[in-house]
Amino acid sequence: MGNVVEMPVWALILLIAFAGVTFASHFLFPSVRWFFRRRMERVVAKLNTRLERPIEPFRLARRHDMIQRLIYDPEVSRAIVVHAKAEGIPENVAFEMARRYAREIVPSFSASAYFGFAIRAAKWLSWSLYRVRLGHFDAAALSAVDKGSTVVFVMNHRSNMDYVLVTWLAAERSALSYAVGEWARVWPLSRLIRAMGAYFIRRKSRDDLYRRVLARYVGMATDGGVTQAMFPEGGLSLDGALAPPKLGLLKYLVEERTPGARDVVFVPVALNYDRVFEDRLLVAARQAGGRKFPARISVIGRFILKQVWLRLRGRYHRHGYAAVSFGAPLSLAEFERDHPAAGIEGLAQLLMERIGQEVPVLPVPLVARALLQAKAPLSMAELEKAVADMAADLDVSNAYLHLPREDIGYGARFGLQVLTKREMVQEVGGAYSVVECERPIVEFYAASIAHLFRDCSAN
Question: Where does the protein principally reside (predicted)?
Fold first, then answer.
């Protein structure tokens, strides 16, 4: 027993390494995970005392457990068998495909990251870029929503800033879970987005197995009471106007619920901007007849560096106003009771109508519409009168009209200044008109509010 054993140094190092890994996996890692989980539970308990809608246990489950629960769901199991037969592959291969899809979809929510970093960053970024205004917001109606229901914020999609604005504006009520497209599946951005509770989706996937896995995850999250945010239009508006609703996620959300489960309450949310940073990319995609945006990370990098350089030189100005309005909640149970034959299509149409009624009216869209409708260049006095006439002609009596300083004349001058600074409007002899090559961009902004007027023509 006391004999000396000789071994090469490399073998000794390998032995120590294996022993270290075994010790870590069996003793150290579980203790560390337990420590951080206990810490997270204390953070969540503290957060839930101030949140109007506490974070549900579903969101706090370990990601591994959620993946296992999803892939062993009976509906997913049946889909695996069907997919294996249809493709002529072994069931274990189809099962691994389902597992890969589940790992791709399921988020890894971190309350500390969401409320400790994301909310502060979102608020700072929003106020750095825009003068943010909250339009219609009936706090009493939102507070009256049954605490046992699942709340879903349904929004128009104007810009990728939509995520940022609504996230921090809703921060006092609950943490939101978004469906995020494939554009965000880039490391390290993907890890941060997962920590925010967002889940990734392949918008154009025609794989039945993938759609079944995604549908069951949405159904589980809805049954679990997760507060969600979704864009019924399915993507960014290419022309600035509201787009017809797409039924994919909405259908999953409604049809995948467990019978007799909690109610779903939709809250319409409408956003509008004096400047959409993606405007040229979106208009170019529409003119090209597709949805491919020719954006590169170098373009984004140059924009950020330019804004930083302007700030360092003291010449930075925010990009106008951004406004968000919250509409009256709509109970799914009440809708199905009152409109038994409407179906998903009727629900989607009603939600888009509710969103459209809440779209904020801001200076730049107003001025853009006035200039496009004019048959000749307008003097400043004529422009102010045209804007005032349009403000009085809003078809929706409760439309949120933001007038800076409560002055219609100042609002017209402000909107004109933003468009002139971007060289979309020109002045000739004291009269203002749209620069012809920039007309599609100006139309993009005018279209955002066109549906709110009795005369819905943009020109």
Answer: membrane
